[in-house]
Amino acid sequence: xxxGPSYIPLLHSGELxxxxxxxxxxxxxxxxxxxxCGNNRLQNELARCHSGRLPIVSTACRHFGEEPALGGLDGxxxxxxxxxxxxxxxxxxxxxxxxxxxxxxxxxxxxSLADMMLELQSAGSRAIGxxxxxxFVPQIVRAVHLAATCGLHLPLIYNSNGFDSAQVLRLLDGIxxxxxxxxxxxxxxxxxxxxxxxxxxxxxxxxxxxxxRQVGAAIVTDGNDLINxxxxxxxxVLPNDLAMTEEVLRWIAAALDPRVxxxxxxxxxxxxxxxxxxxxDRRLREREYEKVLAIMDRLGLQNGWTQEFDSSDFYxxxxxxxxxxxxxxxxxx
Length: 333
Ligand code: SF4
Known about the structure:
The chain has 333 residues and is α/β, with parallel strands linked by helices. It has one domain (7-24, 54-313): Aldolase class I (TIM Barrel). The chain contains 12 helices and 9 strands. Strands 1, 2, 3, 4, 5, 6, 7, 8 and 9 form a 9-stranded mixed beta sheet that branches. Helix 2 (15-25) runs antiparallel to helix 7 and helix 6 (110-122) packs across helix 7 (137-149). Mean pLDDT is 93; it is low at 328-333. The structure holds iron/sulfur cluster.
């Protein structure tokens, strides 16, 4: 069993610094995510994700609402990055993911990002959760290098929308301990219609296959059954089967491994623009969720978690609360 986060050996060998340098070079003509905009972010030329040279962080707090095996009683020290590479019309985090002008004020230095990681560690978090990190990977790795030099020793969770560049992920090999991507759609038409992304399946499959290559299907836990290393694929079930859930689960079982850990989420509620969009304007029905649970079973996907059907009643983040967007939770203060 591995002890300690995987980036510590890379820090000591000098490889972590080299990776940060290689990733920063991608900002010159940005290819940090699969949109490949080609803008010079080092000169703050903004493109599709509205994000320039420095990281933008909406909130950093201890979060007790992740899968229990990730946070345990101490919670995950989540850093919620602003903006996003996808534009989901039903985004539950839309206050920070699609509110570029308002989020500009939350731009911080790399040093502040490193301090944030260290503060979350001092507050007792058992891991650092990087939430919506894809467009800030170079800045994050530079901050991890700084923080690790100053004693950061928690596992890193890469909690992304799954729309990641496989090439960029290769540069995270040995830095990220726990991959927690979404696999949102089993159908590209719906991915374009509801998230504005073309070729979603091909890109997300390549990204998640790369994560799987790095950490495999096995989950590594510590003495308290908390996850230290592994891959957990999240899937949010949408009403009217708009996520094409069976295709998503089938791909995981066939292309990866039926032993891969899946976190099936029932917490959909019509957020952001969804109340005005036919087919997305209601919550899940219980029989829709039961059907998905049966498919999961039939495909032999036995590892992971399924949310309670009524979870959309209490998972409703409010990012205008800067101490903790999750009102039922304890705060870092
Ligand atoms: S990270 Fe942003 S600027 Fe870079 S390619 Fe993606 S969307 Fe474009």
